[in-house]
Amino acid sequence: MSIDNTTSKSRREFIAAGLLAGLAAGCASKSPFTPNDESVKASGEMVKLLSVDGEIIEVDKAFLKPVPDLPHVSNAEERKGIGGKSFVMVIDLSRCKNLRKCQSACNHMHNVHPGQNWIKVHSMQDGEHEAPYWEPTTCMHCDEPPCVKVCPVDATFKRQDGIVLIDNNRCIGCRFCMAACPYSTRVFNWEAPVPDSSSNKEYSCETSLPQKKGTVSKCDFCPDMTRMGMLPHCVSACPNGVFFFGDMNEDSVTNGSETFRFSELVKDKGGYRLMEDLGTHPRVYYLPPVNRNFPYENGLENEQKEDY
Amino acid sequence: MDSLILSREKITSDLLPQRFNRAGIIWTGTLIIICIIGAYAYYRQLTRGLVVTNMRDYVSWGIYISNFVFFVAISLVGSLITAVLRLANVHWSTPLTRIAEIIAVSAIVFASIIIIVDMGRPERFLNLFIHGRLQSPIIWDVVVIGTYFFISLLLLYFPLLPDLKILINNKDRSPKWLNRVYRFMGSFWKGTKEQFKISDKAITILCITIIPVAFAIHTVTSWLFATTYRPGWDSTNFGAYFISGAFLVGAGAVVVAMYIFRKAYHLEKYITDFHFEKMGRIVVMLALLYLYFNINEYLIPAFKMKKPEESHLTNLFAGEFAPLFWFAILVGMIIPIGIMLFRKGRRPLPMFIAGVMVVVGAWFKRYLIVTPTLLHPFLPMDNVPESFRHYFPSWEEWAIAMGSLAGALLVITFFARIFPIIPIHETIVDDEKNV
Asked: Fewest CB within 10 A of the end CB: N or C in chain A?
């Protein structure tokens, strides 16, 4: 418990500290920030913060205290999921130009092995005279997940909030799930992971970190982020707002700057799911590549980089 | 038949296990060396991870899995020769039963070993029992393969009991430690009427139970593939297709073993041309059956050429895998059928050649069932290094696969060194019946 169980602690601390400072600034109107603890000495280094009144205030850095980390989530809770949620993603193909910022952010945050990707951006052309388009794929978090059906040890499982996760401490590395997944979304840790800041941390199914040699991994919908009320890394990394993430129970999805009613978005834009005929019931919806923001050819530039 | 004039003593002395001759020592030594190389390759895999193989995210199952399917297939022959023929009251198969049973036991053991080799986390093997989930076909496989192993072992052991008594009575023929093994395994067997009655009953029960279990092991193994959506695997034909192929390769292996044991131990009086003639008919029938299922398996999807199937099938028929595909069809089925359809082809030497062809063809056939399908996923193979788009096994994979095959042969070799490979007691009984 004493060891941190999350990957992005420094980032989280920073944000939490910012929030705390912001709140403090809002509540105590006279003195913007007064430390309770007299022993803290000002360092002289000032940090600019935005108060709730919209004013920019300056606070000494030494007075910013990190809030304690979120309580540790047990393996049983991780397997159960976040109560009352039903996560869903919408990928708008009319906005994608194969920039792959989603991919690099995801790989970085999950320490995905070099050369492998949890998110892939496919160059698709469905038929001979049809128009090509870019199609990012994540794990579809199917409601009838073929991977979960075949796992012999319950190492990959479906949670109440709709997310399909992997317990890398239990996975035996048989790779049946990889054969079963029609979306080829799963990757395998063929060798030991490249060491990074997560290497010494306690393993968590929700961060999928640290990566474990000899086990399967895949897109996890970043449940560690959603637990903190934040968006998955791919959603916040995409500058074109391709990815929308949200909760079906609230019927809303957002890409960070725009928020839609999920049902209306899918209805108005003609949303669909991949390989509907297989009966996997994915949780990722696609909006067709119509009225595109970019021509297909704009993405070709990044395609060249791909060949290793 | 020749055996009519044989005395009890002659049969016993002919069939008791013999020391390795020069060829036997070279054979055993070679197998041990191959096993050691395989073990070293596995040591490398354990320390570095599965990265020493050439399997990657798309081809996530390679020759380990096709080798596993091969072993499971070949082990089915135990039930065919021992159980099916015994229940059908066919007596000519008596000298072949033990050969078939030891092939079955040895193959099923190495099937289990190779599947553990394929695991990314072999040290978590017990998770299958601690956290096992009944809806996974892998758990079904664990259950039925375990059951099949024990039934096969008992079917090997019970008919061995009267022979153990003969071995114990011929102390001078074997070293001290072997006599101790024989006594440990069979000193309780006195050969009384009551014991024979119990033993015969047990063998009959085992023969009946092994047939559904044998069907189950290979059907479930086929379901490891058929329960997925992938082109080439998504087939309702798979269970029957796998079982017919398994009976074929198992019978082919028995023919090869018959020929080698006959040559090595001079058993011409016991494994006669008549046995080859009979086995030839069985193998031809099984090869035709397997060919029939192959036509179903490839022709019908090829008639429709659904989009996901198209690239897979054209790749097999005329692409990268075409030479191997046609090799497996021709050498594994059509040429052996051509040889063994004729009486002249059912003599020992041509039968041996046809048997080798069936077994080699079958090994590559399993490879063709596993790997090409994985190279044709539904979504294109994008955003991966070039090496992910192809598959050719690394030296470690070859060494481990060959090591497992050598290990299976080694088990059979040592078994034949320690125990009579042709049942002595049953041969005497059959012989006396004939008189």
From this structure: N
Q: Say how far apart CA A89 and CA A253 lie, in whole Å.
A: 7
Using the beta-carbon criterion (under 8 Å), do A179 and B379 form an inter-chain contact? no
- Specify the DSSP class assigned to residue B214: H
Nearest by Cα to B263 from B351, B170, B339, B338? B351
pLDDT, residue A59, reads 83
Is the bond preceding residue A223 a cis peptide, omega within 30 degrees?
no
Domain ranges of chain B: 2-378+396-434
Give strand pairing partners of B403.
Answer: none
Q: How sure is the predictor about A34, in pLDDT bands with cuts at 50, 70 and 90?
A: low
Q: What are phi and psi of A158, to 5 degrees?
A: -105, 130
**If you count them, how many residues does chain A have?**
308
Check A184 against B120: CB less than 8 A apart: no
Interface contact A123-B382, CB threshold 8 A: yes
Structure tokens of A216? 């399967």
Q: Which fold has domain B2-378+396-434?
A: Formate dehydrogenase/DMSO reductase fold (1.20.1630)
Closest Cβ opposite residue A151 in set B133, B383, B386? B133
Q: Kindly give the interhelix angle for B94-118 and B63-75, rounded to the nearest 10 degrees.
A: 160
Q: Supply the pTM of this predicted model.
A: 0.89
Which of B 215-234 lie inside 8 A of A, CB atoms? 224-225, 227-230
Q: For residue B110, which of B58, B70, B55 has the smallest C-alpha distance?
A: B70
Cα-Cα-Cα-Cα dihedral sign, residues B30, B31, B36, B40: positive
Q: Which CATH architecture has domain A75-305?
A: 2-Layer Sandwich (3.30)
Q: What token pair was written down for B164?
A: 């153990």
Q: How far apart are CA B393 and CA B365, in angstroms?
A: 16
Evaluate whether ipTM surpasses 0.85: yes
Judged on CB neighbours under 10 Å (0-12, 13-18, 19+), B236 is: exposed
- pLDDT tens digit sequence for B6-33: 688 888 888 999 889 999 999 999 999 9
